[in-house]
Amino acid sequence: MRLLLLFLFLVLSCRGNCKRDSLNFTSIFSFGDSYADTGNLVVLATPVWKDVWVAMPPYGETFFHHPTGRWSDGRLVLDFLAQKFSLPLVPPYLAHNSSFKQGANFAVSGATALDFSFFVNNNLSNPFMFNSSLSIQLGWFADLKPSLCKSYEECQEYVSTSLFILGEFGVNDYSFMKFGGKTLEQVYGYVPMVIEKISAAAESLIKQGAKTVVIPGILPDGCIPANLVQNTSRPKEDYEPETGCLKDLNDLSRHHNSELLKAVKQLQQKNSHVRLIYADYYHAVMNIIRTPHHFGFIDTPLRACCGNASNQYNVNQTKACAMPGVGSCENPLEYVNWDGVHLTEAAYHHIAEGWLRGPYAVPPILSSVDN
Ligand SMILES: *[C@@H]1O[C@H](CO)[C@@H](O)[C@H](O)[C@H]1NC(C)=O
Ligand SMILES: *[C@@H]1O[C@H](CO)[C@@H](O)[C@H](O)[C@H]1NC(C)=O
Ligand SMILES: *[C@@H]1O[C@H](CO)[C@@H](O)[C@H](O)[C@H]1NC(C)=O
Ligand SMILES: *[C@@H]1O[C@H](CO)[C@@H](O)[C@H](O)[C@H]1NC(C)=O
Ligand SMILES: *[C@@H]1O[C@H](CO)[C@@H](O)[C@H](O)[C@H]1NC(C)=O
Ligand SMILES: *[C@@H]1O[C@H](CO)[C@@H](O)[C@H](O)[C@H]1NC(C)=O
Ligand SMILES: *[C@@H]1O[C@H](CO)[C@@H](O)[C@H](O)[C@H]1NC(C)=O
């Protein structure tokens, strides 16, 4: 009996929309920050920063063999998803350098969920911020749409066969608050605002006809080497014994993620015709860090590949990846962390597989697909 019900459920849940929502996405639109940026920051920063390190070698060395504006040695999760669906690697919107018929990437490194004005008004902005938060990125999508589809109906149809990746957002909001002097306790108070902003963005995409929206949570911020070198005089009990990551920052990441998952479930209940997918960076990264050798990585997963520092993390803010005299490790394939903040292509590949097939997405992106 139970088996029959399960079978009926599978049949019914596929009827009508399995084909449509299947592997046959006709385009990908991405919003986010440096974990998804494929070249937008370089366009914004080149005229105003003295040096844009992400535009210099060894960024890109493994896959592209030249820098592309991605904060990695190669492909990001977004790139692996595009390849899986046989679509072009999603072109950066601000480069205005390609057709966007099959997708556009609006992600900008440093982008926040909350508006830029929030940070300016609260004296939390800094010279590394651009006015490129989530609502601005949604505005760029609105600007682009008339070139992709014409009538309301045509646009709803066009959008319904697109894959939307909304994030991750949040980690920069919390970082800028901390840099601006907010305590961690104060930062917790802003989590509902951040979640609400992401949730509202998903709702806007659904109104526009989106049928598949992937909403990623944030990475374990306490395992980011750049955060681990900030204060070297913290007591031993501040670190997770198993991983060496910072407990308080990981707690905040998990709190954000569980609130985001709740919001995604609520949106799913209100919009049963849409596939909303919560994608889990956190556990994907944590599981690698717990047993790196199991996934083919070196057993010091908190050590950055690209850098030149005398500490165990190989991170020095004044001698960061791509700065003069700072090179990368022999074999990036064996490293989890690339530059002290962002991950290697090898790590992103593993995460992408977990989003596509599980266990790192609910439901897995490929799950309701007839294959
Ligand atoms: C995939 O989508 C394209 C464009 O909508 C359509 O022409 C094609 O027939 C679809 N292919 C399959 C196998 O559904
Ligand atoms: C634009 O595309 C050309 C040719 O593919 C490439 O050489 C150039 O670097 C691109 N520019 C940007 C800003 O991406
Ligand atoms: C950010 O850009 C938007 C759109 O151009 C503009 O309306 C807004 O005032 C800008 N915000 C700040 C703080 O400059
Ligand atoms: C804004 O922040 C800066 C640096 O954190 C501080 O020096 C300044 O006094 C603050 N200004 C206000 C109006 O709070
Ligand atoms: C570093 O951590 C110690 C112990 O928690 C604390 O007393 C100190 O204020 C911290 N230093 C900075 C610069 O945050
Ligand atoms: C970081 O770089 C600075 C300047 O090159 C150097 O003085 C310092 O010792 C370095 N720190 C570490 C931990 O490597
Ligand atoms: C680190 O920097 C120093 C000084 O610039 C250089 O001599 C050394 O070769 C560098 N090491 C690595 C691993 O890049």
TrEMBL record:
<keyword id="KW-0325">Glycoprotein</keyword>
<feature type="signal peptide">
    <location>
        <begin position="1"/>
        <end position="16"/>
    </location>
</feature>
<dbReference type="Pfam" id="PF00657">
    <property type="entry name" value="Lipase_GDSL"/>
</dbReference>
<keyword id="KW-0378">Hydrolase</keyword>
<dbReference type="InterPro" id="IPR035669">
    <property type="entry name" value="SGNH_plant_lipase-like"/>
</dbReference>
<dbReference type="InterPro" id="IPR036514">
    <property type="entry name" value="SGNH_hydro_sf"/>
</dbReference>
<comment type="similarity">
    <text>Belongs to the 'GDSL' lipolytic enzyme family.</text>
</comment>
<protein>
    <submittedName>
        <fullName>GDSL esterase/lipase</fullName>
    </submittedName>
</protein>
<dbReference type="InterPro" id="IPR001087">
    <property type="entry name" value="GDSL"/>
</dbReference>
<dbReference type="GO" id="GO:0016788">
    <property type="term" value="F:hydrolase activity, acting on ester bonds"/>
</dbReference>
<keyword id="KW-0732">Signal</keyword>
